[in-house]
Specification:
Layout (H helix, E strand, L loop, with lengths): L2 H8 L2 H11 L3 E2 H5 L6 H13 L3 E6 L2 E6 L1 H12 L5
Antiparallel strand pairs: 1-3, 2-3
Helix pairs in contact: 1-4
């Protein structure tokens, strides 16, 4: 994961909303789209950005994919940010 990708990923308010929803537990695209004024394809595109940045993970569940927050991705981001509080 490149940290600039993570920062670019969380810069978008829709993606931050998706992360807030996923923080409450794993969800499918359909479940996530229900809380946003954007289409399912748009939600899928936002999730792809979050996946590429390493901030979410996806696992197959039948014909669907279930998305969840990636603790490893956020750990790397937190480690990088923590260096500024230790100065």
């Amino acid at each position: 994961m490149i940290l600039t990708d993570a920062f670019m990923a969380i810069a978008d308010s829709n993606r931050r909303h998706l992360l807030e929803e996923l923080r409450r537990g794993p969800k499918t695209v359909g479940q996530l789209a229900a809380g946003l004024p954007v289409s399912r394809p748009a939600v899928s595109q936002h999730l792809k950005v979050l996946l590429d940045a390493g901030l979410v993970s996806a696992r197959p569940d039948g014909a669907r994919r279930v998305y969840a927050v990636s603790e490893h991705g956020f750990l790397k981001l937190n480690i990088w940010l923590d260096q500024f509080w230790q100065a």
